[in-house]
Specification:
alpha/beta
Length: about 450
């Protein structure tokens, strides 16, 4: 493998993982960010992101002299090792007005570095962007000696380092073969299948993958509700279909809905892309509607468990929540289904206590303003009418349920993740309500 000099613009979840992992593969990487305080912490080896192995890779890269951090995109383009040969754009592309992806940060960086890029440099769009963005960035750069490549990421929060170093595939999109091969070669040590295509197709791959996963999750959530009505067991049903290699077992666990930093914004962005192409993407629209309905279904399930009626009042009912992050293994609260359920419960008048291993009681999060966050599971159980598990943290399986039983007012557990062992809870005196089971 030929080691390259790489600049990574943005030190968020994608950027920092990309920079640290590329350095671990032998490349020399300079990561840049506009947040001077964050860069200072990174230079001191402090990683703010909760991501297994990421802090170790950062420390190893710094110790080996292959990973460094600077303030400002332009400052990452030159250094002691020479000018950057490849520049990764890893800046946020949040959901904008109407669901369209907000490309302001991507465009701002392109304009900032335009005149500092070395001749022959390859600019790689790692951020999730709509089809046509690579072409737009090339127009903004206005440099015939610089090539723009699309190289989407497929990193799951909580396993991002593992996913980067053990990829299912590498997708590289560019109309210039040499540039595409140059980017693909960065990952040669990983031995993954590589898809070389045009930029538009590579950009579409990312959206297509995330929208398909969202559809699969909405499908299994709808299937779980049907199982409840028909007396079937969703666990047995998903096991039965999961062995089919055409379907697979991943993303077949029902839950309170899908969320996080990717699926909500990417499904909305895909709808906007479809609308702009005068295509009514009914299947995707139904996927989103099913997900929105799932949050309310969780509230209805809690209402029935606590009051015995689907129309019973939750006013001043005390509920304990186990889990706030959108998934286990991360401290990310963005578009968390748990927070969406919490908001609906508060609208219904419920009083909420919550415990999450990654969220401290002194966290200043606006979405938690009406939730009392505690630092011990037993505190979330104090005098509650029900405990509701909303995030699949493995440690919840080994909680002292006898202790929790002594703290609650009613021994009711609503397990929206099918995580807990019903027999263990029943032995502690709890009544258990799960998804897709009677």
């Amino acid at each position: 493998m030929f080691a390259r000099r790489i600049a990574v613009i943005g030190t968020g979840y994608v950027g920092l993982t990309t920079g640290a992992c590329l350095a671990s593969l032998g490349h020399t990487v300079v990561c840049a960010d506009v947040d001077a305080a964050k860069i200072e912490r990174l230079c001191d080896g402090q990683v703010d992101i909760l991501e297994p192995r990421l802090d170790d890779l950062v420390a190893e890269g710094q110790a080996a002299g292959r990973l460094s951090f600077v303030v400002g995109a332009a400052n990452a383009l030159t250094g002691p090792a020479g000018a950057a040969e490849v520049v990764f754009l890893c800046v946020p592309t949040p959901m904008g007005v109407g669901g369209v992806a907000d490309l302001n940060a991507v465009q701002a960086v392109a304009e900032e570095v335009r005149d500092q890029l070395a001749p022959g440099c390859v600019v790689v769009n790692k951020s999730t962007v709509p089809v046509g963005t690579a072409r737009r960035i090339h127009e903004l750069l206005d440099r015939d000696d610089v090539t723009v490549v699309s190289n989407p990421e497929f990193l799951r929060e909580g396993s991002a380092v593992h996913d980067f170093l053990n990829p299912d595939r590498i997708v590289v999109g560019c109309d210039t073969q040499d540039a595409a091969e140059k980017v693909a070669a960065l990952y040669s040590r990983l031995g993954a299948p590589t898809v070389l295509t045009d930029a538009a197709s590579a950009e579409m791959v990312k959206y297509a993958a995330n929208c398909f996963l969202a559809m699969k999750l909405s499908y299994v959530n709808a299937l779980a509700e049907l199982c409840e009505r028909l007396g079937a067991d969703i666990g047995d049903v998903t096991e039965g279909i999961g062995y089919d290699h055409r379907i697979g077992q991943a993303f077949l666990t029902p839950g309170p809905g899908w969320g996080g930093s990717c699926l909500p914004k990417d499904t909305q962005a895909m709808l906007q892309v479809a609308d702009s192409a005068d295509f009514e993407f009914r299947l995707l629209r139904a996927t989103i509607e099913t997900n929105n309905r799932q949050r309310q279904r969780m509230v209805d399930k809690i209402r029935l468990a606590v009051t015995g009626s689907r129309t019973g009042s939750l006013s001043r009912i005390r509920i304990g929540m186990l889990g706030l992050t959108f998934k286990a293994g991360t401290d990310d609260l963005r578009d968390s289904p748990a927070l969406a359920v919490a908001a609906l419960l508060r609208q219904a008048g419920a009083e909420l206590l919550a415990y999450d291993p990654a969220v401290r009681s002194d966290s200043a999060v606006p979405e938690l303003a009406d939730v009392t966050v505690v630092d011990e599971p037993v505190l979330a159980a104090k005098d509650v009418e029900a405990l509701v598990l909303l995030t699949e943290w493995p440690e919840f399986r080994s909680l002292d349920w006898s202790e929790l039983a002594g703290a609650v007012r009613q021994r009711i557990v609503v397990d929206t993740r099918s995580l807990l062992d019903p027999d263990v809870l029943r032995r502690a005196g709890f009544t258990v309500h799960s998804l897709g089971r009677n």
